[in-house]
């Protein structure tokens, strides 16, 4: 049984001396311009291309572009464990250089030097903000204050199902957009302390969703495309990134200022009932700019990831009616009457629900790669990776290896339930599963996102059965993994 734990990460790996490093070679790999010659070359499915390259060169390889921008790839859990260990003191994630540049050259001069937010900052300044923000985003009492309104959003989404279905009980081709609307409504609670009106098709919701989507696409083109000219002069993707980023900045600046004025004019603030944005505004170590930038990062990062996690969870449940039934039995036992409001106690006791989400993310990790930058010349997998290199940690292939997870190709949520006798001797490698990131650089709003997802699952499956009658998904990958087909689920009432 593989029992890797956090204690493993704290062990010191055997040091590789400078003399030894001198005799190591860099990893093998193709040149960037040769990628189109691979059988699985598809700009829409980069994860399959990396798999092709790995079959030829092994679990450690590089893609050579030029002296400044070669990328290194890892897909062995022990190598990734070592990378997490040697970068733990200062985990630099260099994936958003274009995003950082947008803020550095922002026309309104909103951003102070080296104060660019937790998504693209590193070192002491990143930790100054991150350490204060996570106090509130990880606080169970604060997260629980959002549950009644998250539950209302989930109920409103369930009401829409009847209006969205066709005569064959199929969801429309744009059902993914409906999930984006649901995610946006929840982000609105967190970032603006209000509903955005996504289900009603408000102008704000349309503009915010479009801007967030364009930001993701533009970053992908800037960071993963071959044209790096944006580093020296704005090209089309960089201009799109800048325009949409600045739109969201103006919107959020206005909303945070409104919240600030309300707080300032409130004579008796109940410190125990503060939501996250109020808590951050009242944190002495954070400026109002810090709060605005943090909310901007939340809305950029949370809409796609939460909606896509929900999409793949629905897909897994639709293809596994056995576990859909187990989920519904749990909901009947724990939540009972669907008229009840969801409570923190309900959420705590949804063990099968939580295991299903984890298993869905194992098979379909939205963040299919994580990124780290080496702090010094490092030996990984018998090769030298130079200081300052961008290293891509490939999560998806590891999740389907038997050495990491027993019966890896199967959807078996029980593997995530502690003390389950069925899986107690199974392989379960924590360094092959990190859908929310790892260590201090992990998702700062993870618990909030999970609560949103559990709430919607509870409401949907208490009332409906989901089926998948289309061909199997063959996910695409840009910055994130996403479905390649319209999500035309067949949705029928449990109790006709």
TrEMBL record:
Heme binds at residue 443. Its cofactor is heme. GO terms for molecular function: heme binding; iron ion binding; monooxygenase activity; oxidoreductase activity, acting on paired donors, with incorporation or reduction of molecular oxygen. The keyword Oxidoreductase applies. PROSITE patterns: CYTOCHROME_P450. The keyword Protease does not apply. Pfam families: p450. Belongs to the cytochrome P450 family. This is Cytochrome P450. It comes from Meganyctiphanes norvegica. The lineage of its organism: Eukaryota, Metazoa, Ecdysozoa, Arthropoda, Crustacea.
């Amino acid at each position: 049984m593989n029992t890797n734990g956090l204690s493993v990460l704290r062990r010191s790996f055997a040091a590789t001396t400078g003399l030894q490093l001198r005799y190591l070679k860099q990893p093998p790999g193709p040149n960037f311009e040769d990628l189109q010659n691979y059988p699985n070359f598809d700009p829409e499915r980069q994860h399959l291309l990396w798999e092709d390259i790995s079959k030829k060169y092994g679990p450690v390889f590089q893609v050579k572009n030029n002296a400044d921008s070669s990328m290194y790839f890892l897909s062995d859990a022990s190598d990734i464990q070592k990378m997490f260990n040697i970068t733990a003191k200062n985990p630099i994630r260099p994936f958003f250089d274009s995003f950082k540049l947008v803020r550095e050259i922002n026309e309104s001069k909103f951003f102070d030097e080296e104060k660019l937010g937790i998504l693209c900052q590193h070192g002491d300044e990143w930790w100054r903000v991150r350490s204060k923000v996570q106090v509130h985003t990880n606080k169970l009492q604060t997260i629980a204050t959002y549950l009644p309104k998250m539950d209302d959003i989930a109920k409103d989404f369930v009401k829409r199902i009847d209006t969205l279905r066709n005569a064959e009980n199929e969801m429309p081709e744009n059902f993914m957009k409906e999930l984006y609307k649901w995610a946006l409504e929840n982000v609105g609670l967190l970032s603006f302390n209000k509903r955005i009106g996504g289900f009603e098709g408000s102008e704000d919701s349309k503009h915010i969703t479009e801007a967030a989507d364009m930001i993701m696409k533009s970053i992908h083109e800037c960071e993963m495309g071959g044209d790096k000219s944006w580093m020296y002069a704005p090209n089309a993707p960089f201009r799109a990134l800048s325009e949409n980023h600045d739109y969201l900045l103006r919107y959020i600046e206005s909303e945070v200022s409104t919240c600030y004025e309300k707080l300032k004019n409130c004579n008796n603030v109940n410190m125990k009932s503060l939501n996250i944005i109020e808590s951050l505004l009242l944190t002495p170590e954070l400026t109002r700019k810090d709060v605005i930038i943090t909310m901007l990062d939340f809305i950029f990062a949370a809409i796609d990831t939460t909606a896509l996690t929900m999409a793949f969870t629905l897909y897994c449940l639709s293809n596994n009616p056995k576990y859909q039934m187990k989920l519904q039995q749990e909901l009947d036992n724990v939540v009972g009457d669907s008229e009840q409001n969801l409570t923190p106690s309900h959420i705590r006791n949804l063990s099968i629900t939580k295991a299903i989400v984890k298993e869905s993310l194992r098979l379909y990790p939205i963040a299919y790669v994580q990124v780290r930058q080496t702090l010094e010349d490092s030996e990984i997998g018998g090769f030298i990776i130079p200081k300052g290199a961008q290293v891509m940690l490939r999560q998806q292939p590891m999740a389907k290896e038997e050495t990491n997870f027993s019966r890896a190709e199967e959807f078996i949520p029980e593997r995530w339930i502690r003390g389950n006798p069925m899986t107690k001797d199974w392989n379960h490698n924590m360094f092959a599963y990190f859908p929310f990131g790892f260590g201090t650089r992990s998702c700062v709003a993870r618990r909030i996102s999970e609560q949103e997802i559990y709430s919607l699952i509870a409401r949907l499956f208490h009332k409906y059965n989901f089926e998948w009658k289309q061909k199997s998904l063959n996910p695409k990958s840009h910055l994130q993994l996403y479905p390649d087909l319209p999500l035309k689920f067949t949705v029928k009432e449990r109790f006709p």
